[in-house]
């Protein structure tokens, strides 16, 4: 339950036990939890490292339990700060990569042969995807914004994914949280995990991307129109930067099959991201596009947030969200 704060399961069990039984020693705890004394000592070490146990002032060699309202809240604040720092890094990396893609696509010719940099048109892009997937030997990593996927595209993707996995190539995919509410796309994500792929989701994604064997990246020239043209990048420096962005987002994404976690305010990641996007001045339509949601869903979600804040207008909701630390 508290693993997201860095607390291992046994350490959490020991902590919970000590909240009601502070008189227990190591042997008693081991007996109560049916584990070894060595395991209990290791749990003590982790609790001390996380500042949930402190040395006792009264009993030399003893310990003092730090109350949850102090210790766990401190861990939660620290985790929140880490996530915010990761989000800032993702934003900076995304902007840097966008500049690199523009620079790279400007200096490569339009062409359709396998070694070309720029690929124009959806048919040519799909052909290039099939070629690169057939040549992959270790991993295909992808970020797929856009929310719900077209059933026709899902069927085509399944055939390609199956061939890739049959060769033993790893597949890692990041989609939007919104696909969890779209039955066909969720079924596709679950099908992927069933054949051994890994699928995770986040509230929003910076751009569509495909990375093959950590050596070649396929990115859209225009993130607003990913079907128009793409650029194939074999440059190691740029691919390294693109892969770093993927790994940053992968680390904070939630695996399919795992419920989306709420933060300390009770907000889901998607709700917090919606607040952030609207606070930046995005319209309902733009925010919905980024989150893979319809305008109607965005408005319904915002109405629910306003009700929880007790706000009568979006302006008031923004003020209250900021006052309560939601932004």
UniProtKB/TrEMBL annotation:
Residues 261-325 form the HTH luxR-type domain. SMART domains: HTH_LUXR. It comes from the Bacteria. Pfam families: GerE. InterPro entries: Sig_transdc_resp-reg_C-effctor (IPR016032), TrmB-like (IPR051797), Tscrpt_reg_LuxR_C (IPR000792), WH-like_DNA-bd_sf (IPR036388). SUPFAM superfamilies: C-terminal effector domain of the bipartite response regulators (SSF46894). This is HTH luxR-type domain-containing protein. It comes from Sphaerisporangium flaviroseum.
């Amino acid at each position: 339950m508290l693993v997201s704060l860095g607390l291992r399961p046994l350490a959490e069990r020991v902590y919970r036990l000590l909240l009601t039984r502070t008189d227990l020693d190591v042997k008693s705890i081991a007996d109560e939890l049916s584990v070894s004394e060595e395991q209990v000592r290791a749990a003590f070490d982790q609790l001390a490292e996380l500042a949930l146990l402190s040395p006792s002032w009264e009993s030399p060699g003893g310990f003092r339990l730090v109350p949850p309202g102090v210790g766990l809240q401190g861990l939660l604040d620290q985790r929140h700060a880490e996530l915010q720092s990761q989000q800032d890094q993702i934003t900076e990396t995304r902007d840097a990569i966008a500049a690199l893609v523009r620079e790279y696509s400007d200096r490569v010719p339009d062409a359709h042969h396998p070694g070309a940099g720029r690929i124009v048109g959806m048919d040519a892009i799909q052909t290039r995807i099939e070629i690169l997937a057939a040549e992959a030997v270790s991993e295909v990593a992808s970020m797929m914004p856009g929310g719900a996927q077209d059933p026709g595209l899902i069927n085509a993707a399944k055939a390609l994914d199956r061939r890739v996995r049959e060769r033993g190539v790893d597949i890692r995919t990041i989609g939007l949280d919104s696909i969890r509410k779209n039955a066909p796309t969720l079924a596709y994500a679950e099908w992927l995990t069933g054949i051994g792929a890994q699928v995770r989701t986040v509230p929003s994604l910076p751009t569509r991307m495909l990375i093959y064997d950590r050596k070649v990246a396929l990115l859209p020239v225009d993130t607003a129109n990913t079907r128009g043209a793409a650029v194939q990048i074999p440059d190691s420096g740029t691919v390294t930067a693109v892969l770093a962005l993927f790994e940053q987002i992968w680390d904070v994404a939630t695996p399919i099959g795992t419920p989306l976690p709420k933060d300390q305010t009770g907000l889901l990641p998607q709700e917090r991201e919606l607040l952030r996007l609207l606070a930046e001045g995005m319209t309902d339509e733009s925010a919905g596009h980024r989150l893979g949601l319809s305008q109607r869903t965005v408005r319904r979600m915002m109405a629910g947030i306003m009700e929880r804040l007790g706000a009568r207008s979006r302006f008031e909701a923004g003020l209250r969200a900021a006052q309560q630390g939601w932004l």
